[in-house]
Specification:
about 150 residues, alpha/beta, Nucleotidyltransferase, domain 5, five-stranded mixed β-sheet
Amino acid sequence: MRLTKRKSSGISAEADMTPMIDMTFQLIAFFMVLVNFSEAEQNERIRLPASELAKPPDAPPESPITIQLTSQGTAILGGQELSLGGLDQALLIEAQLLQSDSESSVADATVIIRADQEIKTGIVQEVIQVCQKRGFERFALRAKHEERRT
């Protein structure tokens, strides 16, 4: 029995990878932008205090406003470094923006305070009082989680 080679029809079974590569690059770009937005609310100068009780929040806060307190006692809000008096004015503007939005209110906003580990507790209390003066009621303090040593 003699075997003969069949003639190929000339049709290639290779897939065009261009759309898949294009989609991969689009996903990479999307996640890079997403990471940059989350890092905008953090400042490398702020060294959070360590706590065994610190844990990540269960759900993202509604209408978050992040205030970062440096070791020098200044506040960073929206990328601007402010004194406590300047923070009062900036919070007034934030409160007005929230009141102009029909879906949210000042009382619904959560103020996230990221204070440096070297800052005095009294300054954190002053910041909370300034926020309360402007109508903010919900607060979250950030710390880094530290494992219990045995």
